[in-house]
Each structure stands twice: as structure tokens, then as C-alpha cells.
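Table S4 entry, L,D-TPase catalytic domain-containing protein.
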Amino acid sequence: MQVRQELRPGEDALRTRGQRLQDAELRGRALDLASVHVHRVEIDPEAFTFAVFDGDKVLRTGKVATGEGGTPTPPGRFYLTELIKPPDPGGDYGAYAFGLSGHSPTLKTFAGGPGQLAVHGTNKASALGGRVSHGCVRVSNDDITWMAQNLAIGTPVIVRN
């Protein structure tokens, strides 16, 4: 199996299935569809809200902060790529940070990295409900902790137009 993975807007790389896709290996095994969770996260940047779904059932909702002015949160279909637990849960990235498969349309680099988008907690809950970030989606530390405990890497994230 081969998949295309976006590295930066307009760039992609052809990846061949390897050890990192071990969860996708189903050959020779029966799949119990009743046990499969179809989680997704939907973010509405105009209403400053998120909702986590399991199929059609809403599991959790909350407030978000999004990108401001020259560093907007771009709309699109992304997925969770990694989960990081920052050393200081009271810091700028909160208790946890999920990397997203997308990148900033305006920042080629950020904090030494490639301008990757993220969903992360915040130490400033009062900023939720506004445009305050460099393109990332901020949620409360309670919400990001719940997400870290309940969402898998690969979970789709939809940022509406």
C-alpha cells in the first residue's frame, strides 16, 4: 500500500507502508465493525467551537481560539499526526498538543519547525472564543486532556470554511 502525505502546501511525498502503519494491517483477520469507532473532530472557526463525533453521536463540544489576521487557521480536511505532552502544562501549548497534517498557508517555519498546524491546550482560557493564534486551534486544557485520552492518531479533523 502506498499513500501520499502532504509535507507543506503544494508538496507531497509518496510513502510506502511500513512499521508505522502496523494498525492498518488487517490481512487474514476478521474485522468486527461494531467495535470500530468513527471519531472525527469538526471545528467551526466562525462560531469558535469544536465538536467531537463518534459517527453521528456528539461526544464533546467546546470553545476554540483560531488564527488571527495574517496567520489564519486554514479550512480543510486534516488528521491528527502525533500527540505531544509539553513539559509545562501551564505553558503556551497547554497540557497536550496534537500535530495536524496541514501547514500554515502563511508561515513557512514556526518555532523551528515547518509551520505545521496543531490543536493544543492553552494556559489562557480567556482567549477562547477569539482569533489569537498563529494558525493553530486552541482548546481548554480540560478539552485537550479529554482528546488525548480518547482520540487516536489518524482521527480526521475538519476545519470548516
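The chain has one domain: 39-159.
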